[in-house]
Write a structure and sequence with these properties.
By secondary structure, this protein is α+β, with helices and mostly antiparallel strands. It has twelve helices and eight strands. It comes from Paraperlucidibaca baekdonensis.
């Protein structure tokens, strides 16, 4: 699961709806899950606030996602993001896109209290990152989705998203060469890795616990390289991929423990959000509604526990992958990004609108 809040500009409500559903509601693969598009657009367009709405997407790998799971995600997201607040104070609209090789659950929330008419931002890209991450982690475990917490899903290289495409391509090329040298035993230590980059015209300028910074000797441009291959405790042994596979197996076998941990983390994130919004929430906060949101989490866990025997499908799928190859793991660094994967970006500008 990937959750992303878009950089919403001063677009109209109608422009937002047009992007999601098409001007004549003709967009292929688009369907309304809940909410009224005309009502949401009207609320946004009647607002005089500079930021009139917040929008984002929850992306799920695969096309055949069970409707029950989709409803659990959308209803859970809506209830938990507004935990403790009456439902009549916020408007939500959900639109599902199935025109790609994954499912996108798009949401639009006008930034206005429907009762008082005052500004309130229920989701903030910067300050609600902790809540969004904990929500993602909980449902990743509950529904068995791919998660960046799985050792085999760790990226060996992470680059800044604002780097030019040409720089990304070159750095990925060098990184893949370095990973092959590590696997073949040519690069056996951090010092060998630095020598590798120096050979290709880059000087290591700084070293941190989870990244290094290199400088192009000719252009003097600096680049930060992060990912598990650049962490200070990275194991340079040739069988490190096999060790990742073993760690991943143990990770999947600890599902119940991870469910309990993700539940606690999600509840703590809700407590932090309520505290952050205290100046607004204290006037309207309903403890019964807040408890209902917490109860939803426990109800989902109970239903999961009662439904079937322990699901070992994940382990079977894991075994079916076969050996993890150097090429496969290296190329993972190009495509996998928990919050900045190009394959999960909307086809047009995330500002929604023509």
């Amino acid at each position: 699961m990937i959750i992303k809040i878009f950089n919403t500009s001063e677009r109209t409500g109608r422009g937002c709806i047009n992007y999601l559903l098409g001007r004549q509601f003709e967009r292929e693969g688009a369907s309304v899950i809940s909410g009224l598009p005309a009502l949401t657009a009207s609320i946004i367009d009647s607002s005089k606030l500079k930021k009139s709405y917040v929008s984002g997407v929850i992306s799920l790998k695969g096309k055949n996602i069970d409707d029950r799971k989709i409803n659990e995600i959308t209803q859970g997201f809506q209830l938990l993001s507004c935990a403790g607040l009456p439902e009549n104070r916020v408007n939500f609209m959900w639109v599902k896109h199935t025109d790609k090789d994954h499912v996108e659950l798009n949401f639009v929330i006008p930034c206005v209290d429907l009762v008082s008419g005052k500004n309130i931002n229920f989701l903030d890209k910067k300050y609600d990152h902790y809540f969004l991450s904990r929500f993602r982690d909980f449902f990743d475990v509950l529904h068995g989705y791919d998660t960046p917490l799985d050792p085999v899903n760790k990226r060996s290289l992470i680059l800044g998203e604002k780097l030019p495409a040409t720089s990304k391509i070159e750095l990925h090329r060098l990184h893949d060469l370095a990973m092959r040298d590590i696997h073949s035993g040519v690069v056996k230590s951090k010092e060998n890795l630095f020598e590798f980059y120096n050979f290709y015209g880059y000087e290591v300028k700084s070293i941190k616990s989870s990244s290094i910074t290199i400088e192009d000797i000719n252009s003097k441009k600096k680049y930060r390289l992060a990912g598990f291959a650049y962490e200070e405790d990275f194991d340079f042994s040739a069988d490190y991929y096999e060790k990742l596979m073993m760690e991943s197996r143990a990770f999947h076998l600890s599902r119940q423990a991870r469910l309990a941990e993700s539940r606690q983390a999600l509840i703590f994130s809700l407590q932090c959000r309520v505290k952050k919004q205290a100046r607004y929430v204290n006037r309207y906060f309903d403890e019964i509604l807040y408890d209902r949101a917490i109860q939803l989490i426990d109800d989902l866990l109970f239903a999961d526990y009662e439904s079937t025997e322990p699901d070992l499908t994940t382990i079977a799928d894991y075994d079916a992958r076969g050996p993890l190859t150097v090429d496969g793991a290296a190329s993972d660094s190009v495509s996998r990004d928990d919050l900045d994967d190009e394959s999960f970006e909307p086809e047009e500008s995330p500002d929604y609108g023509p």
